[in-house]
Structures are given as C-alpha cells and as structure tokens.
Design goal:
single chain, alpha/beta, 6-stranded mixed beta sheet, 6 strands, 38% helix
C-alpha cells in the first residue's frame, strides 16, 4: 500500500514546482505534514519556502543539548525574520542522565556503538515523538550529500518511522542551495562560511578541507557508515 501511495504522489506532483508540491501536500494531508529542520542550508531554503507561502506545515527541530551556539543564533534569526513557530523537541532527561552517569560525557568517541547510543537518545527518540501521528515528513536531504543518497526518490516510504518522506531538494546542488540563500537573504549558520557543510552536535562536527567529502566533517574519527539513525541513507 505504501508503494502505491508513493507512486501516486510521484505521478501527481511530477510537473509541480517545489512550492506547488508543498502546498498540495499541506492540502491533501491536513495537519499531518511536518518538516524537520536542523537549520542547515538546505533546511533554511525549505523553511523560507514554507514561510513565504504561509503553508500550514508544522516545522520542528531537535535540540540535542550539544548544539553549536551558531546554530541557536540562526534559529533565533529565523524566528525573527519569518515570524513563524518552530516546535522544539528535547531528549528525555532521565535517558541523558543515565547515559552520562554510566559512561560519562564523551562516550561517543570510544566506539561506534556508543556514538549510536548517544545519537539514539538525543536525536532518534525525540524524532520518533515528533513524527508520531503524522503522514508526510519533509526533509532537506540531497543526493549530493553522500553516495548512499544517490538512489533516493523525491518521495520515499520510511519503513523505520512508517510514513512518507518528501525530499524536495533532492536534485539540488550545494551551489544552487547557496544561490537561493543569497538571492533571498535567507539566514544561515555562520559556520558554513568556515568550512562546515553538514552541521550537527558540536563535539561531532568539524570543518572540512577543500576536496573532502561533504560528510567527512561528521564523526570524523569514524570510518563507519556515517548516519545517526534519523535517515537510513
């Protein structure tokens, strides 16, 4: 059934612009469409499109408790510029306390298993709560971000969270994202100008050098498949 829905959405929106598709989804799935933002460049473009068209799409973010101050700064600027609501989800206090009491504040450096445990507590569990009861999840994923995302489609069924995922910027290049931001005066994280492309938690993110893979700045001490569990690709 999910495959049928995905194919139907792909067919119905094949000739739509991103803004037309967002409006279509908001109307077709009233109060069941959400957009998750981490205030990266892609997410800022989508936020601008939602705000500019005054679309009834819930925007939310995950505050892991270990974000860069620069991320909070662009969060604040976004609220002020677009006069919108952005719902914030936090990890469960008891789970964070238990992790730190048992393994300390930097256990994620010690093993991939520990890092994924931290990601689950701080990101995956809150995301599960945020997505519950919804039918469409809008993301800022782009194919260019990693090799595993090259085979994604604009609409996908996410079996992990059991809903349809819409990736409106899937085929955009980073240059196109930056051009939209510049042309439309969209607030962006100042870390992007310092070599940070993919920005997550402060201890787990670094700037990348010219020629490095976009994901090289995330969990740079690992050589594993670099995902946190929010997206399987």
């Amino acid at each position: 059934m999910s495959a049928v829905i995905v194919n139907t959405l792909l067919e119905k929106t094949a000739n739509f612009s991103i803004e037309e598709t967002l409006a279509f989804l908001a109307n077709e799935y009233k109060d069941k469409v959400v957009f998750s933002t981490s205030f990266g460049q892609e997410d800022q473009v989508i936020t601008a499109l939602i705000a500019k068209n005054n679309l009834p799409i819930t925007i939310f973010t995950l505050d892991t408790g270990r974000l860069f101050q620069e991320t909070y700064d662009v969060f604040h600027k976004t609220l002020k510029k677009y006069k919108i609501d952005i719902k914030t989800y936090f990890p469960e206090t008891t789970a964070v306390e238990a992790l730190l009491n048992k393994k300390g504040p930097n256990s994620f450096y010690e093993s991939v298993e520990n890092r994924k445990e931290c990601c689950f507590i701080r990101k995956v569990a809150p995301l599960t709560k945020a997505l519950k009861g919804n039918e469409i999840w809008i993301t800022g994923l782009r194919a260019e971000q990693s090799e595993n995302r090259n085979d994604l489609a604009a609409f996908e069924y996410d079996a992990n969270f059991k809903l349809i995922k819409f990736n409106p910027l899937l085929k955009w290049t980073l240059a196109e994202v930056q051009k939209y931001i510049d042309d439309n005066n969209v607030p962006q994280n100042t870390l992007h100008k310092k070599g940070f492309v993919s920005i997550g938690c402060a201890p787990c993110t670094r700037a990348i050098a010219e020629g490095e893979d976009i994901r090289a700045g995330r969990w740079s001490w690992e050589s594993s498949h670099k995902e946190c569990g929010l997206h399987q690709k």
